[in-house]
Amino acid sequence: MELRRLGKTELMVTPIGYGALGLPGVSAETLEQAIVGGMNFIDSARGYDDSEIKIGKMLAKTGLRDKIIITTKSFSRDLTGFKRDFETSISNMGTDYIDVMFLHDVSTRKNWNLVRENGLIDELYRLKAEGRIRHLGISTHDDGDVGREIIESGHFEVVMIAYNAANPELEQTHIPLAKSLDIGIVIMKPYGGGVLTDKRSRELGFEMSAEEALKWCVSNPDVSCVIPGMDAHEYVDVALKVLNSDFVSLSKEELKETVERVSIKGKNYCRGCRYCMPCPQGILIPESLKLNNRWEIYDQVEWAQMHMICEEFNATIPAESGPELCTACEVCVQRCPYNLPIPELMKQCVTIKNHNNGHN
Predict the structure, then answer these.
(1) Residue 302 DSSP symbol
(2) 0.85 surpassed by pTM
(3) DSSP character for 252?
């Protein structure tokens, strides 16, 4: 596939980059595999465990810093925290500059006000003037007024948004708006938090491969770069297969059919982004909700599957981290970019846990 222009930054990026999530499967080896295979864009964040350190190891080994576009993100909403995040990031990655520095998950009116009032945008401009960052970026999960205001603010050269075949709405709103303003568009969550992959899609009642989901996203010509999370060599292989092919776009009919095929019966499904964590009560929220995703498909339909899900729940979610500990404090609700009613879903998870005991 041909390189794409990252909006007004004038950077030329591969249409598929590496989303270096904070997962054990992300390693210096998988990162090197992706870069040697043809990718030139890597994204990380301060909240992604040791992801930045692994990127630093890969850069030190390959010596390819000048050939790679490195971006990272800060969740901080205060100036002191942001400055600390930035210094930690460049130290971890062993680089003097960041190509695009993102303010991450600015998805509520409160957070949009905070990053402006607390001087974070001014700090981005200062760092750019010093040459320590090359371009200003922001990510948002908001698909309404806040997201639109962020794009129209005039501050940012790159926007990162969630877009996939399960959530295609932004192709009618934020994507054409950003394109009209010559803002580079980076797509996170092309697999819908893992839902649009072989195993998870079948669990949810339809079939979708990671390759199909990726092709759907890169078919939008206004998208600059798609960054799937890749925590195993096999996912890097899938991405490189698409990237190094002569693929250009799905047809209009194929694009429509792909969206129509995504039939998620449980509308409160968890995408596994983990922004809800850590839970003040120590509950393993994403792990519990992953099992709840499956439960919503089989509840009162396939008793054998319900029995198996209950057994798996009790085997993998220890009592000291179980859903019964939920106090409905709603800290997780405030963090969730998809506005899931997590305390109510924790009640459902208790039902799942007790199903085989006849306590449902």
Answers:
(1) -
(2) no
(3) H
